[in-house]
Design a protein that fits this description.
The protein is built from 7 helices and 8 strands. With about 170 residues, it is α+β, with helices and mostly antiparallel strands. It has one domain (about 5-165): SMI1/KNR4-like (3-Layer(aba) Sandwich), CATH 3.40.1580.10. Strands 1, 2, 3, 4, 5, 6, 7 and 8 form an 8-stranded antiparallel sheet that branches. The relative contact order is 0.19. This is SMI1/KNR4 family protein.
Length: about 170
């Protein structure tokens, strides 16, 4: 699937949901200053066209300036035991979370050492510290959800309904 194909899918999703997307410059700059990484173009296009919000009332996408690593999200609860358990997924930069507690993101070390568009999407299951690759790339992640209706979270295909989150 090409970036142009993906853009058409995003525009269709945005149109059907009245999503307005968002300017990604400031959020991307803030994220890059904190984590020094480039994000996959598929995610940047998704944010620019659709914006933050909830997919199927289940999968919630964060604005770039609100993205955090798994470790940063758990920092208030951190102790020595948690730190050891968290090690495999501590550096996962989370871009979405589900109502069931799943988290989706990319390993920061992948975003640093690989072209961002080639970085696999990691799913951290609820109440788990193990990450599993659910898509070979972000473009593949969106293709699986939008085109194939893949059951990536154990709840069946997500409806093609997007609820934008108010900006500002």
């Amino acid at each position: 699937m090409t970036e142009a194909d993906l853009q058409v899918l995003f525009e269709s999703l945005a149109e059907s949901s009245s999503a307005r997307g968002m300017a990604v410059g400031a959020g991307l700059a803030q994220l890059q200053s904190g984590h020094a990484v480039e994000l996959p173009s598929a995610y940047r296009h998704f944010m620019r066209i659709v914006g933050p919000g909830s997919w199927g009332g289940f999968l919630h996408f964060h604005a770039m300036e609100h993205m955090s690593t798994h470790e940063e999200l758990l920092a208030p609860f951190m102790d020595e035991d948690l730190e050891q358990m968290l090690e495999p997924t501590a550096d996962v930069l989370v871009f979405a979370n589900s109502d069931n507690g799943d988290m989706c993101g990319w390993h920061l070390h992948d975003l640093v050492r690989m072209p961002p568009n080639d970085c696999p999407v990691i799913r951290i299951a609820p109440r788990s510290f193990d990450g599993a690759v659910i898509a070979a790339s972000t473009a593949e992640f969106f293709r699986l959800l939008l085109v194939e209706g893949a059951n990536l979270f154990g709840v069946g295909a997500l409806p093609l309904v997007f609820q934008p989150r108010p900006l500002g």
